[in-house]
Amino acid sequence: MATAAARTTSASQSPVHVPVLVTIITTMLLCSSIVGAAKGNEPEPEPTPTPWPEQFHSILMMNFSGELELIDLWYDWTNGRNFNIIQHQLGNILYDLEWNNGTSFFYTLDSDRQCSSSQLEVGILRPNWLDGATYLGQRQVDGFLCYVWEKADFITYYEDVESRRPVHWVFYTGREAHVMTYEVGAALEDAKWQVPWYCFEETTPVAAMEDVNGGTITQRGLVDFAARGIANM
Ligand SMILES: *[C@@H]1O[C@H](CO)[C@@H](O)[C@H](O)[C@H]1NC(C)=O
Ligand SMILES: *[C@@H]1O[C@H](CO)[C@@H](O)[C@H](O)[C@H]1NC(C)=O
Fold this sequence. Notes:
Blueprint: H1 2-13, H2 18-41, E1 55-64, E2 67-76, E3 81-88, E4 93-99, E5 103-107, E6 115-119, E7 134-141, E8 144-151, E9 155-160, E10 166-171, E11 176-184, H3 222-231
Antiparallel strand pairs: 1-2, 1-11, 2-3, 3-4, 4-5, 5-6, 7-8, 8-9, 9-10, 10-11
The structure holds 2-acetamido-2-deoxy-beta-D-glucopyranose (2 copies).
The site of one 2-acetamido-2-deoxy-beta-D-glucopyranose has 3 residues, from loops.
């Protein structure tokens, strides 16, 4: 563009060059309109899911066939851990702590002193765990216009078109998460990741959960597997 402007200036000073200049400009216009037309015909590239930040905190409203839970999700890839603090409606709080080495603990901190653990082949979800998901198009959900993807028949994931934040996901089981808050970079203090002493007394591992997914997913499935752990407690 700077070159074109420079030419215009010199051309106005020497009229001899005017026809040449007109040709150049015409050619430029023609080229740019061809490029423009070509661009218009290109199919829009499919959007891809935004990778998760290495650390974030979310409050999730969960609905499983009308059974409601509020979950504090602390995703902490930096430290190789993931925490779901699950408040059952007018019920107890269940702590589901997952380490990247495959160990999970499910426990309560009330007088029940329940704890169970499991050992999986896989670690926590990676920030790019949605890579390779199938794009399904745009849909309106929870009042947000979202891009929608499906990952391996296991989860349908909705991301706000405008802010690119997650809004909603639905597991193949029908369990739904509504993302109420999304604080990128928020991390839970180390002391809160302490597992209570009774987890080390006589822990009965819950059923091996790697068979649950039939080998299609090589990572743990957020809070849905937690629910399976609870069911087996
Ligand atoms: C929860 O899901 C059920 C359908 O499974 C629906 O009827 C109900 O309205 C939902 N509740 C809330 C609070 O979203
Ligand atoms: C995984 O890491 C946690 C936290 O450091 C630890 O309590 C647990 O024993 C480890 N599991 C294995 C199998 O090493």
